[in-house]
Design a protein that fits this description.
This is Flagellar P-ring protein. The chain is α+β, with helices and mostly antiparallel strands and about 375 residues long. The protein has helices spanning about 5, 10-20, 35-40, 70-80, 205-220, 240-255, 340-350, 355-365; strands spanning about 25, 35, 40, 45-55, 100-105, 115-120, 135-140, 145-155, 160-165, 165-170, 175-185, 195-200, 225-230, 235, 255, 265-270, 275, 280-285, 285-290, 295-305, 315-325, 330-335, 370, 375. Helix 2 (about 10-20) runs antiparallel to helix 7 (about 340-350).
Length: about 375
């Protein structure tokens, strides 16, 4: 069988997959969103915790101590703290122990005694953490202080299957999780209750959205309640009483605000060929040549005049034609369209690779025809 013909169906499937990956957000009417979805309260945040510990009770799947000396040192140090002194020449051969890193997130306003979920990740060359038990591990913050203690049975998720003597494992055995495996030992001070001002931080910097948030807050709670410092930071005057402040923040975050339209943006994954764009992306007149591919976009004004004595007005609209040519002679004409989505779909239909798409989009951006921010991931 000819290899050229045998690979054609898979090539078509690849093109279909790339075409299906082109996601276009069609124009839609602006709608209001809750303020809690647009902004966060400064000082109300999570803090990352990290610790080093040992997982014991493994079924021979622990670290190979000849290649991970820190595991042996950790075990010897732990035993010494328990009053057991090992000879200096004793070479431990541990197969049921693994050195791990334990991570967790300390939520805002967490209090001592509260439990947290932790993630346990192998540091050495352990084959599996399944069935192991994490020994007491202090969890520290960025300041080096201990904020929690973790301990418990490690659960490794996933699925396994076996047939005809062969086994298939669909999971990562060197990472596990312990639900409610850590206890908070210290709370993090919060500056939320200090002063009569709280600060809102927009998730995306936008001066128009910041101005709309200020208008909505002042309309709800009265003039001079909110003031924008820049395109991201908004200061709001809040009650001094803690109970009244909590009620005020609940009402504040429930305010509906219509955000300003986002800027035109195109995101492309250079590995898979996926292209994502929003509704504000437009194209201007340009001509791009890339290998045996050429893309030409022509835009011409179309004048529509009203009938005599009708009292109407003359309307000038832009009519575009997109021509895509691939040698030895396949031509696609897209009339009355200047949509980037149409260009991408047409390029996919004639066999353009992700690298072709990337080169053509970058050329359009450099020529000033692609009126959008282009981000390559």
């Amino acid at each position: 069988m000819n290899n050229k013909h045998s690979t054609r169906p898979s090539f078509r499937k690849m093109l279909q997959a790339i075409a299906c990956a082109v996601c276009v957000l069609l124009p839609f009417a602006s709608h209001a969103e809750r303020l809690k979805d647009l902004a966060s309260v400064q000082g109300v945040r999570e803090n990352q915790l990290i610790g080093y510990g040992l997982v014991v009770g493994l079924d021979g799947s622990g670290d190979q101590t000849t290649q991970t000396p820190f595991t042996v040192q950790s075990v010897a140090s732990m035993l010494q703290q328990m009053g057991i002194n090992l000879p200096q020449t004793n070479n431990l051969q541990l197969k049921n122990v693994a050195a791990v890193m334990v991570t967790a997130s300390l939520p805002a306003f967490a209090q001592p005694g509260q439990t947290l979920d932790v993630t346990v990740s192998s540091m050495g060359n352990a084959k599996s953490l399944r069935g192991g038990t994490l020994l007491m591990t202090p969890l520290k913050g960025a300041d080096g202080q201990i904020y929690g203690m973790a301990q418990g049975n490690v659960v490794v998720g996933g699925a396994g299957a076996s047939a005809n003597g062969s086994k298939a494992q669909i999971n990562h055995l060197s990472v596990g999780r312990i639900s409610a495996g850590a206890t908070v030992e210290r709370s993090v001070p919060s500056a939320l209750a200090q002063g009569d001002m709280i600060t809102l931080e927009l998730r995306d910097t936008d001066f128009s959205t910041a101005s709309r948030v200020v208008d909505a807050v002042n309309k709800r709670f009265g003039p001079q309640t909110a003031a924008a410092k820049n395109g991201r930071v908004i200061q709001v005057r809040a009650p001094l009483d803690s109970d009244a402040r909590v009620s005020f923040l609940g009402s504040l975050q429930s305010i509906d605000v219509t955000p300003a339209p986002v800027g035109a943006k195109v995101i492309m994954n250079a590995r898979t060929g996926s292209v994502v764009m929003n509704q504000n992306v437009t194209l201007d007149t340009c001509a791009v040549s890339h290998g045996n591919l050429s893309v030409t976009i022509n835009t011409q004004p179309v004048i529509s005049q009203p009938a005599p004595f009708s009292g109407g007005q003359t309307v000038v609209a832009q009519q575009s034609q997109i021509e895509i040519n691939k040698d030895p002679g396949k031509v696609i004409l897209l009339k009355n369209s200047a949509s980037l989505a149409d260009v991408v779909k047409a390029l996919n239909s004639i066999g353009a690779t992700p690298q072709d798409l990337l080169a053509i989009l970058q050329a359009m951006k450099a020529a000033g025809s692609l009126r959008a921010e282009l981000e390559i991931i």
